[in-house]
Design brief:
9 strands, SH3 type barrels, four-stranded antiparallel β-sheet, 37% helix, Arc Repressor Mutant, subunit A, 251 residues, five-stranded antiparallel β-sheet
Length: 251
C-alpha cells in the first residue's frame, strides 16, 4: 500500500492527466477505499489544489472553501519537483524566501516531504555545500541542468524537515531538558515545534524557538510539566520571573 505522501502525489498525477474521475475509479487506481480517497481529496483542497467540487455522484457533499493565508501549490510544480527527485540530476531553481526575496541557485534534488500542512523540497544547495529544505509553494521555477549527480550520504529527509520547521525562522532559541523519555517529550512538544534528542533513557533535550525571552517563558509555563532551561540565561530569568509573579498572584 502506498504511503500517505505517495498517495497524494499519485492523486495529483491522475487529476492532472484527466480532470474528471469518479470516486470509485480513483479508489481503484490508488488501491484504497473510497472513504480514503475523499479524505485525500479534502487534504489536497486544504493544501490549495483546485480539485473539482464533484468526484462523481458520491462527492456532491464536498465543498472547498479556499483560505487566502494558506500557501497555494500548483499540481504541475509538485509533479515537476517529484520528477526532479527521480531524475538524479542537478537543477537550477528560482526560489522565494519568507521575506519575498527571489534567488536563483543550483540544487541537487533528493526528496519531497509532506508534513500534513505543507510540502517541502529537500535538496543539496550546491553553492553552500549543504542539505537544505525549501517550501514547495515558494519554488517559482525548476530547470533541469542535464548534469547527473550522485548523492553522497544524503540525510533523513523527514528528520531534516522536522528540524528545519521547528527551529526557524525565530529570533531566539532555548534549550531545555525534560525529565521524560523521548516519546512523552514528543507528545508535550511536537516535532514541528522543537528539535529533540535523547538524554539517556529517561530524559530529553529539546530546542525550541520563539520571538523573545518572555514569549518562550510563557510557552514553557504553558506546558505544565517539570523542566530545566539549559540556555540561554534571559529565557531562564524570564521563566523565574513569570513563575514568581504567578505564585504571588495566587498566594
Amino acid at each position: 500500500m502506498l504511503s500517505a505522501s505517495a498517495r497524494l502525489l499519485r492523486l495529483v498525477s491522475l487529476l492532472v492527466a484527466r480532470p474528471s474521475w469518479t470516486c470509485a475509479e480513483l479508489a481503484q487506481r490508488t488501491a484504497v477505499t473510497e472513504r480514503t480517497v475523499r479524505r485525500d481529496i479534502a487534504k489536497l483542497r486544504e493544501l490549495g489544489y483546485a480539485v473539482g467540487d464533484r468526484l462523481g455522484e458520491m462527492d456532491a457533499a464536498f465543498v472547498h472553501t479556499p483560505r487566502p493565508e494558506e500557501p497555494q501549490i500548483t499540481s504541475g510544480m509538485l509533479l515537476e519537483l517529484a520528477a526532479a527527485c527521480r531524475r538524479g540530476e542537478r537543477a537550477r531553481m528560482s526560489y522565494r524566501d519568507w521575506q519575498g526575496r527571489t534567488t536563483v541557485r543550483d540544487v541537487d534534488p533528493y526528496r519531497l516531504v509532506h508534513t500534513g500542512r505543507r510540502w517541502y523540497f529537500v535538496a543539496r544547495d550546491v553553492a553552500r555545500g549543504q542539505w537544505r529544505t525549501f517550501r514547495a509553494d515558494r519554488v517559482d521555477r525548476l530547470q533541469p541542468a542535464g548534469l547527473p549527480v550522485e548523492l553522497v550520504d544524503p540525510p533523513d529527509p523527514a528528520l531534516l524537515v522536522s528540524r528545519s520547521v521547528a527551529t526557524g525562522p525565530y529570533t531566539l532559541y532555548a534549550t531545555i531538558r525534560l525529565p521524560v523519555p523521548m516519546g512523552r517529550a514528543l507528545r508535550l512538544i511536537p516535532s514541528t515545534v522543537g528539535a529533540h534528542r535523547p538524554d539517556g533513557p529517561d530524559a530529553t533535550i529539546v530546542e525550541v524557538g520563539g520571538p523573545d525571552a518572555d514569549g518562550l517563558a510563557r510557552y514553557l509555563i504553558g506546558l505544565a510539566t517539570p523542566l530545566r532551561v539549559l540556555s540561554p540565561e534571559p529565557v531562564r530569568q524570564a521563566l523565574l520571573r513569570l513563575t514568581r509573579e504567578l505564585y504571588e498572584d495566587n498566594e
